[in-house]
């Protein structure tokens, strides 16, 4: 593990503790840097988890209000919800039993003042600025990513092309890797947590007035409309 990543994770976890103490609702975790090209550029061999800001969870079909100087973007993702905590070292059967279901999701990111060095990426949970989840469905309904799934659009225009290399087909294995990363750093997946599993397409830049929708088929669709703060 690189020193830069460890410094960034330490800053991220300190910020998580500060926000929880200040009253931020716990929401769970997200996968950071699942693009293999970006991993190579940063000297990574895998993705890593960041935390979700529960105060920035928005309603499906609602509005994302961004600042005048924000540089907003949206990513379609699969979200997993956990019905029970996962102990360090849990096997795949225990992890699968802990997953209550899956939902379509959008992660919201803000590239304002973004620094693309590894420490900054880790400290900011990859520029996390909020998230939206749709209705929970059985894990078995999650489709293979690719071949047009999800259909990710801004209005009627395609916002991103699904890339099967971005999201592992073994979501239980992905959860196991998150558990293994968090455990030695004093964190875990708790009952009620979400895990959003990494962008299924490249991020889509958005502007005021854009309605962004990701339709995953069987698990359903999720959307958000962007509005500039006036």
Structure characterization notes:
22% of the residues lie in helices and 32% in strands. Strands 1, 2, 3, 5, 6, 7, 10 and 11 form an eight-stranded mixed β-sheet that branches. The chain is globular, with a radius of gyration of 16 Å. A hairpin with a 5-residue loop joins strand 12 and strand 13. It is an alpha+beta fold and 230 residues long.
Instruction: Give the end-to-end Cα distance, rounded to a whole number of Å.
Output: 43 Å
| Overall spatial form | globular
Helical run tally: 5
- The class by helix and strand makeup works out as alpha+beta
Which range does the strand content fall in?
Answer: 25-35%
Specify Rg, calculated over alpha carbons.
Answer: 16 Å
Strand and helix order? HEHEEEEHEHEEEHEEEE
Helix content: 10-25%
Largest sheet: 8 strands, mixed
Average of per-residue pLDDT values? 95
Q: Could you name the ranges where pLDDT drops below 50 across 5 or more consecutive residues?
A: none
Q: How many E-type strands? A: 13
